[in-house]
Amino acid sequence: xxxxxxxxxxxxxxxxxxxxxxxxxxxxxxxxxxxxxxxxxxxxxxxxxxxxxxxxxxxxxxxxxxxxxxxxxxxxxxxxxxxxxxxxxxxxxxxxxxxxxxxxxxxxxxxxxxxxxxxxxxxxxxxxxxxxxxxxxxxxxxxxxxxxxxxxxxxxxxxxxxxxxxxxxxxx
Length: 172
What we know:
By secondary structure, this protein is an alpha+beta fold. The protein has helices at residues 14-22, 24-40, 46-72, 139-149, 152-171; strands at 8-11, 76-79, 83-87, 96-99, 105-107, 119-123, 128-132.
């Protein structure tokens, strides 16, 4: 593990910040346009009921994904020597501190051997979850900091998974 001083600030550009905060609104409005006629003229046809049901399910999945983003993704992450200080959550002034020593799991995205997706650092102490996307400025640096500063069992688990993924890719 590396002992160099850490003091980095990570954030999203304004465009991505707007998409992650408000991206569900226009999509939800468009999907709602498909639902509204069903309320004014309900149909007994199976096709109409299936269509209505599928649009409602898509709306629920979409909005639950955005709710998760709003809950665990800070738009400003300050990596310090011993912890992450996370702030600028959607509709919240909360600031969360996640100490590297308390990290129990790194999952999703690169931590799970994928190229994209939300990455989450978890700590059962206070039930803290901090998520971020690869589109975060210098996301690779944040990933490296989290992997290198995480407790040894977490470090070994993630590096083993990354090595396994690298071997799979070299075979292709």
